[in-house]
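Aim 2, interim progress: modelling of the zinc ion-bound target.
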Amino acid sequence: MSSRIEEFQPLRDNEVRMYACGPTVYDYGHIGNFRTFVAVDLLYRFLRQSGYEVRYVMNITDVDDKIIRNSARDGVSVQQFTAKYETAFIEDSAMINIEQPKLVRATENIPQMAEFVSRLVEKGLAYRADDGSYYFRIAKFLQYGKLSKKDFQGMQDGARVAADEYEKDSARDFALWKAPKPGEASWESSIGPGRPGWHLECSVMSMQELGESFDLHAGGEDLIFPHHENEIAQSESLTGKPFAKFWFHARFLLVEGEKMSKSLGNFFTLRDLVLKGHKPSSIRYLLTSVPYRNQLNFTIDGLKQAAVSVERLRNFRLRLTAGNFADGSNAAMQTLAAETVARMRAALDDDLNTAQAQAAIFDMVRHANAAFDTGDIKKDDVVPLLAALTKFDQVFAVLDDDDAAKMKRVFDWAPSEGRDKDISDGLRESAQSGKLADADIEKKIAEMKSARASRDFKTSDVLRADLAAAGVLVEITKDGIRWRRK
Ligand code: AMP
Ligand code: ZN
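Predicted structure of the complex, ligand included:
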């Protein structure tokens, strides 16, 4: 709100209450959407790593102008239409290791929304139009424009806009509640039949879940105006209290140097990229490689680079867990690990500077790999080096090697949507690489055996956990080690 970087302090003790505007479930999510959702996921993970208890709520917008238009086009009910894309959103989020927030749905909170409108009307802040729609009277909120820093001098009192999304020069009284139109979904309510406007949804659900004042509200930069401006206006004028203390907006990404758009052919859903054979972990890594506030240029080359980076980190971890080291410790390695942890923390503490945190871990990997080659990593250095990697991964979440299983799911899904023709050789190979994956499993089992033979049960446990994360159950019997897929 202040347009300055401020020290983060929650309103209440150690608890952070945060709300992110979620997807409008009318299509598969694109990488722009996921740029924002991954940025918020990173924030969520980092706040927890920093010792806060975080209550994180996200809405699913399951009724709005676009949904109504597209479900009518497809000849299905709003509910049938949105259920499909909500499921896809949850699956896609899991595919790129987004931890699921508490999800709340607009259509499950309609009575509360009608109630909110009545209270605004009682206070003279909203009015009913002739068709039964309700509008918020922005002239009543003198601070209107305080988030977007736009000057609304001379705007016309009483002029109205019914659409959920609109440009800044049409700052008008906006629709809180829309009267039913023929063929549109509508609900009976205490203020008459109709459906909520998008802005109202988020105010009602965020305050219901987190209280009238909460710590942080997030979304993509396009939401600053009108969506968040309108949320502030209706919430603060009703409660008389500040709404969200901090605002977090992710910058829109470019794709191959241009604004992403279907007409330019640079529009990608997450599934489009996996169909092309890219790993979910590469996508996540690339999306986090530029701090949320800076412009990220998403390119296919960048994605290939990201894959190499993730591979390097995974190989390094494998080297540490599977290697044999001489007894003792090397002060240089101990310092390296400690300094890396401190550098990562300082970077993320600085308005989530993800690029610098990544630079810190790669410096560590470079130095430690060199030390590995010259035998300068000792047994007692393994734990602190692994701990630094774990700290990194608690936030970045790319180390677990579970891409193949996730890609297989996209491979299996493709025919159901007529996308089989888009399956690349890369995806086909990865999805059908049962043999290769078996070889990888056997390799890890062999490493487990040799670790156990030298009574290094810690390494054995790490390997076993890796296998479990990849869906492989390992059974250790007195006759040896057996495994099977879950
Ligand atoms: P929507 O599903 O359109 O409501 O958008 C869901 C989230 O994605 C919102 O927070 C948007 O601000 C964000 N978003 C949409 N397009 C982009 C983009 N190109 N880059 C970054 N974030 C985006
Ligand atoms: Zn919202």
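The chain has a mean pLDDT of 93. The longest strand covers residues 53-60.
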